[in-house]
Amino acid sequence: MESLNLPSFSHKVKQVNGKPFIFDIIRKKFVSLSPEEWVRQHFIHLLITHYGYPRALFAIETGLRYNTLAKRTDIMILSPTGAPFLLVECKAPFVKVSESTFAQISRYNFTLQPAYLAVTNGMSHYCFQAANGQIQFLDDFPFYSINRDER
Fold this sequence. Notes:
It comes from Dyadobacter helix. This protein has 151 residues and is α+β, with helices and mostly antiparallel strands. The chain contains 2 helices and 11 strands. It has a domain at 35-138: Lambda Exonuclease, Chain A (Alpha-Beta Complex), CATH 3.90.320. The strands form 3 sheets. A 6-stranded mixed β-sheet has the order 4-7-8-9-10-11. A 3-stranded antiparallel β-sheet has the order 1-2-3, with helices on one face.
């Protein structure tokens, strides 16, 4: 897999029937290693090691309904009360983060209403808040703090 604009981490990869699988420390199992999964695993480790999020607050590829469509979130960080706090949409490194990427996460925001939203392709990363029809881009991702205002 290619180098990303994210810190490297110690990862376990194995081959199953000639296909690569990577160990996901949140789901506690090996998952198919696609370019998007490579980005997701890097971002999970970044959120844990640099931003201090406890593993117990992660939800990976959880389902949601938007109108009548079934969708899946890439990474959801929950607050200690269980409310959505940070929603991250991951794309493969060769997929440009574009208006359609922001539209996708905005649809998820409509249903889940997390405090923060983020999009990444492993090369470019954006974090923002969306409230009352306003979008405010942030310079960095929020750090975990047990003293923050719980939603």
